[in-house]
């Protein structure tokens, strides 16, 4: 163990328990608290992060994963990933500072924002961060002046038109300008050591990686002709975060592996990296959000009645978190969060058309509409899973506050696997060839378990 993460950083979840049990304990504790203040909180299963890592190594054995800090910079996540030996892709000074504060050496950091503030380029120079991305002449000139010993990675544009979040308009050099940029770098005595791309967050098309790998090969050839010694290929992010995503990691992995074999065969001397964000954290985080207010609106439509003769109604629930906070995926990724109810409604319980709203005083702060829910009450908790990506961390770094408490958990089996850095064996796979959960996830929630009391550990 490198010592980034210790047992005091998380709740050890013993066999027979799940994250949901922990979450239920915490919501019960919060409901019984004497204070009127309720705040949404996360439970993060670090074992799920460990499992994702092993699955990634298995699917893409030639790729060295880095973690895109912007996706979720909570300390538990950074520590477990540092413990697993990952490098870190940082978009700004705050992220570099954060990972260096937990002890990550500068040699494991890439400053990947292609457009940077001069003061932050200087910060990288002063703190030993050597690998920096660029995608235009102006940026190159800034780095020449402020960090002349930097090693540059040329970020190329991709076709990200099908991804959840497209960035190629903002970042990435078109192929036709790469030769010019490489020539410029040579003239300025800047070493260009590699090529990076990002197919866009939530990429549903594995061929986007294959095309970009082929493009990167062309740029490597241009670089070699101009005297650059290029040895890094960075595949960026875009890998799926949720279990059961439309395109599975295995499928993406097989397309990437074939493209790598074709364009960057084993033994070619190129170090293949990826900068994964949502892949590692999405499914590891579950959030509990409390209902703070409720309003019933009668739908007075002539001729429309409920079965029991009453006037139909819709129920509006107000939550203490909304689309400008942890539910920003509603705005940016077009996702409709569906709550998991803590108590399963009885079959005879009526369901009502319902909507969930955040605390902002505007009509855009709608978390979900068109839900059919049983009658809920102020103070009830709604649980949402797959909440780890772009929900916590970077936002709080900018604001200087951590909005939601995070309780980290890990199963003993995941902790042992992490300590031994054990790759799952063949027997650890289920019939579909998927790695067996090391996580203390939701899979055993129907069993009533009895065990030791939890002592929540929050390290953020
Ligand atoms: N790399 C770069 C350059 C990014 O901009 C991002 C996210 O926007 C990522 C990696 C991480 O992407 P994802 O969360 O899809 O893995």
From TrEMBL:
Main localization, broad class: other
The Orn/DAP/Arg decarboxylase 2 N-terminal domain, residue ranges: 47-281
A Gene Ontology BP annotation from the UniProt entry: positive regulation of polyamine transmembrane transport
Recorded coiled-coil stretches: none
Database matches in SUPFAM superfamilies: Alanine racemase C-terminal domain-like (SSF50621), PLP-binding barrel (SSF51419)
Gene3D superfamilies listed in its UniProt record: Alanine racemase (3.20.20.10), Lyase, Ornithine Decarboxylase, Chain A, domain 1 (2.40.37.10)
Keyword vocabulary terms for this entry: Cell projection, Cytoplasm, Cytoplasmic vesicle, Golgi apparatus, Membrane, Nucleus, Polyamine biosynthesis, Pyridoxal phosphate, Transport, Ubl conjugation
Database matches in Pfam families: Orn_Arg_deC_N (PF02784)
GO MF entries: carboxy-lyase activity; ornithine decarboxylase activator activity
Keyword Transport assigned: yes
CDD domains in UniProt: PLPDE_III_ODC (cd00622)
A single GO cellular-component term on record: perinuclear region of cytoplasm
Keyword check for Repeat: no
Classification via InterPro entries: Ala_racemase/Decarboxylase_C, De-COase2_CS, De-COase2_N, De-COase2_pyr-phos_BS, Orn/DAP/Arg_de-COase, Orn_de-COase, PLP-binding_barrel
Subcellular location: Cell projection, Axon; Cell projection, Dendrite; Cytoplasm, Perinuclear region; Cytoplasmic granule
Subunit structure, interactors included: Monomer. Interacts with OAZ1, OAZ2 and OAZ3; this interaction disrupts the interaction between the antizyme and ODC1. Does not form a heterodimer with ODC1.
Free-text function comment from the UniProt entry: Antizyme inhibitor (AZI) protein that positively regulates ornithine decarboxylase (ODC) activity and polyamine uptake. AZI is an enzymatically inactive ODC homolog that counteracts the negative effect of ODC antizymes (AZs) OAZ1, OAZ2 and OAZ3 on ODC activity by competing with ODC for antizyme-binding. Inhibits antizyme-dependent ODC degradation and releases ODC monomers from their inactive complex with antizymes, leading to formation of the catalytically active ODC homodimer and restoring polyamine production.
Family per record: Belongs to the Orn/Lys/Arg decarboxylase class-II family. ODC antizyme inhibitor subfamily.
Name this protein carries in UniProt: Antizyme inhibitor 2
Gene it is expressed from: Azin2
